[in-house]
Design brief:
- This protein is an alpha+beta fold and 167 residues long.
- Helix content is 41%, strand content 20%.
- It has five helices and four strands, in the order E-E-E-H-E-H-H-H-H.
- The chain has a four-stranded antiparallel sheet with strand order 3-1-2-4.
- Helix 1 crosses helix 2, helix 1 packs parallel to helix 3 and helix 3 packs across helix 5.
- The longest helix is centred in the middle third of the chain and has 24 residues.
- The protein is flat.
- It starts with a strand and ends in a 20-residue tail after the last helix.
Length: 167
């Protein structure tokens, strides 16, 4: 059974007093909250194994792109020992989860959005959108994919202090 049903889920948890979010896949007969570190399940969808893997890949790439963007802009985001930092708000993670789950239902849109997400790993889509390089559905989806990467935390940016040349 290569495409047995799986639960794609978004949950919160705590390990050694450290909170985190997690997006993952579990067998349909497993209770997600049986994991001793997980507290609440915020999203749970029963889908095929291959679909779950594809969607999980897109969600994780989207989140990694977001973290890289924040790091490049010198924002301090905690890195928990497991999962995703609580510095990322739940509503943003739910939006990312829901978008990729929903877009997977339309194969053409999925392929466009996944391609845009892979491009977004290297460069912002904003210039492509503004320059009219993208047309039709590609432009429409590029705006949505870019929106999933626009979060800016309230936390302070890392201030780089130059060390004195001598002491």
């Amino acid at each position: 059974m290569t495409n047995s049903p799986q639960y794609l889920f978004l949950a919160s948890g705590v390990k050694k007093g450290e909170g985190f979010w997690v997006v993952g896949v579990k067998n349909c007969d497993e209770n997600i909250l049986e994991d001793k570190y997980l507290l609440d399940c915020h999203r749970k969808e029963l889908i095929g194994n291959e679909s779950a893997k594809d969607i999980l890949f897109a969600i994780n790439l989207n989140i990694n792109n977001l973290f890289n963007e924040l790091r490049n802009k010198d924002y301090l985001i905690e890195r928990p020992s497991m999962g995703i930092s609580f510095d990322i708000p739940l509503d943003l993670l739910e939006s990312i989860f829901d978008f990729w789950l929903d877009i997977y239902k339309n194969q053409e849109a999925w392929e466009i959005c996944l391609g845009l997400l892979k491009v977004r790993k290297r460069i912002s889509l904003t210039n492509l959108i503004k320059s009219e390089s993208l047309k039709g559905n590609s432009k429409k989806w590029a705006i949505k994919v870019e929106t999933l990467h626009t979060y800016m935390p309230n936390s302070h940016r890392i201030e780089k202090i130059n060390e004195p040349m001598w002491k």
